[in-house]
Amino acid sequence: MALVKGGVGGYGGGMRYFLLVVGMMFAGSVMAAPVEASKEASKEAPPAVETVAESVKETAKEAGEKIDQAVVRVDERLTQARASRARGGWFAAVEYSYLDMILPSKFGLVVGKNRDQNTSWELEYLSGSIKPPGFLDRFGGLEEQRYSFLWRKYLGTNSFNLFAGVHYGKFTIQIGDAMLSRVAGTPTIDAMRLEAFGGTVGLGNRWTLKNGLTFGVDWLSWAQPLVVISRKAAFIDEAGTADDGSDARSAMNLVSYFPRFSAVKLHLGYSF
Question: Where does residue 144 rank: exposed (0-12), middle (13-18), buried (19+ CB within 10 A)?
Answer without folding.
Answer: buried
